[in-house]
Each structure stands twice: as C-alpha cells, then as structure tokens.
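Hi there,

I know you've been waiting on this one. I reran it after we fixed the sequence typo, so this is the corrected version. Both the input and the resulting structure follow.
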Amino acid sequence: MKRFLGIGLTAILLAACSHDKPALTPDRIQDNLRGNVKVVSLNYWNTKRTCKYDEHGFYTFDGNSYYDMSSECTYEYSKPGIRSKHNQSLDGNNPAPVTYDYTFDKDGRPISSIVNIAGAKTQNNFIYDSEGNLRRITSSDINMQQIVDLDANGFRKMVDITYNADPDPKKCPGKTQNFTYNKAGDMVSEKTVYRNTPKETDLTCAIIYTITKRDKQGNWIERKAHATYRYPQPVNTPIDYTQTRNIIYF
C-alpha cells in the first residue's frame, strides 16, 4: 500500500473543483499539458505511464509500470472535478476502493477532504490565495506528511514528503522536490533531495530538461533529460536519456 501511495498521492489530492470554475488544479495542468487532452502515454527507460482525462482535465485513469512493478487507478466523480471514488490495482492486487469526503467553504470551494483507504484515513487541507487560486495542499496520515506548493499558474513549485512522522522532522526520512518552468509553462528542471538517517547519507538528484519536439498544440512530445546524482562522497554521476509522449485530444 505504501509503495502505491508514493506513486499517486499527489494525483489523489488534486481532484476537486467548485460549481463554476476549477477550485483545484486540473490534473492535466499538473502534467504540463495544453489543450483538451484525452490520453497521454509517457515512455522512458523501463518506465511507462498512461493517463486518461475527462473533458474538465481530471484523471479518469492513471497507469504506471516500472520494470516488474505496476499500478492502475480508475477515478469516479460525483460532479465535474469532485472525485468520489477510485479503484486501484497494485501488481495485480485489488484493494478496496478509495472514497472521498469533502468540506466546502461558502463559495463552494473544497477546504478539506478525508481520503478513506482500506480502513486508513488521509486528511487533506487546501489553501487559496486572495484571488481564489489554490496555492498549497497539506496531507497527513499514519505513514507520512506531505506539503504541495503551487504557483499562480497551478504548476507545482515544491513537494515535501516526510515518512513516519516524528515531532522532529530532521529525524525523519523523506524527500523534497523543487521545480522550475520557462515562460511557456514547460518544466525545465527539477531537483529532489532524498533525506535519510543519518543526514550524511542524503542523495540529491538534479534533472535539466531540453525540449526537442512539440506537437501542433505546443505540448512537448520529446525531450532530453540530463540527470546528475550527488552521493554523500560526493560523486557526480550524470545520466542522459530521452522521454517521449504520445498525446490524443478530444
């Protein structure tokens, strides 16, 4: 269960909207997509991911495979953007469905939710700026705490995850991710620091992206990645690889 949550917790959080306009960021924006996207298939190394979206830009399906591991989620909504349930499969196993309970403010925006996962509960809180844009999501359960910060365009700026929460976060393993974008909204770099115990064993991964092909909608369909892993020694180990996306529109 914990491995699955690590794959898709951010997707679980970003799943609601108000009656008139999205109050939370559509999943396709989180995936850096322009236009009315229906299906995206991402490939690189031994990783494959297929995402399907509804006409509002929210996930209806999210499938991942990495070497011999795989996960699939199908999502249901009570109204556009308000996720009511999803069914998940991890390596062919099918746990009980995941359900959602929301609390809304007077403007119809979700301000909190409870995600019910096989008897366990995840508490999510949603924080907006003065313009009504979602800017922060906090999440906590028995295994972890997570913070997601978004910029004014709805793109992730920072994700921080702490596992097995301790009163002193410095004693807990976890990771912090930071993302940067160009003026067009394309992600150009990301940096992840994996916090370990003791701290001297931390690992840092920095990736720079260069877009090499776009489709007619302006979405990238091929990009080069230059990844540098910095180990405690320290030793820099650069890795270059190519990511490709196949995109289908409504």
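Quick highlight: The two ends are 33 Å apart (CA to CA).

Best,
R. S.
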